[in-house]
Each structure stands twice: as structure tokens, then as C-alpha cells.
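Incident log, entry 3
Record: DUF4235 domain-containing protein (94 residues)
Problem: checksum mismatch between cached and fresh output.
Input:
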Amino acid sequence: MAEERPDVAWRVVGGLVGLATAWAARKILGFVWVKTTGKEPPVDPDSPEVSMGEAIGYAVVMGVGMSVAQIVVNRTAKKRYDSWRALKQVTPGR
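Fresh output:
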């Protein structure tokens, strides 16, 4: 059975998309946290000055929010990349 080589271009693009998504999701979720709670997100959720409820709430919001953002953006980017590759293979002169 032939071993498939990983698409290096997609790995680079996917990595950059992942970094940009993580940065943007963190900013957006932080903004939503401030608008919802009226307080800045905890800098260190492990700190004793942060209540247990706030620390758990922040962890849940960030965990779910970051995961959903990564899934949506990665699937969309991969779909567009694959269609671009298919188009490029159909029209090799361009």
C-alpha cells in the first residue's frame, strides 16, 4: 500500500490559519466576557483572588469557544484549499 505524503503547503497554511484563529477567538471571547460579566477576563484563573465559579466559567467559555472556532475555520479553510487545488489541477496552464 502506497503511503500518502502530507501536503506541505496545507500544513503551512493550516498552521497559519490555526494561529490566526486562536488569536482572533481569544480577542473576541475576551470582548464577549467583558460585555457579559462587566469584568476583565481573569489573567490567571488559578489565582486564589479569582472565585472558583469565575475560573470555571472562564475555562468553559474559552475551551468551548476556541474549539468551535478552530473547527469552523479549519474546515472552511481546508474546503477552500482543496477546491483551489482541484481547480489548479484542472487548469495547469494558469
